[in-house]
Amino acid sequence: MVQVIPALEPVLDRYDGFIIDLWGVLHDGLSPFPWARSTLIALKAAGKRVGLLSNAPRPAAVVAAKMRDLGFADHDWDFLMTSGQDAWEHLRTRPDPWYQALGANHYLIGLPKDEGLLVDLPGLRVFDVSDADYLINAGIDFGQTLDNVRPLLEDALGRGLPMVCANPDHWIVSDGRPEVCAGLLAAFYEHQGGTVRYHGKPFPGVYATCLGLLDGIPKSRVLAIGDGLKTDIKGANGAGIDSVLITSGVHGEALRLESDGWFDEVALQQLMAQEQAQPTYVLHRFQ
Question: How many domains does the chain have?
Answer without folding.
Answer: 2
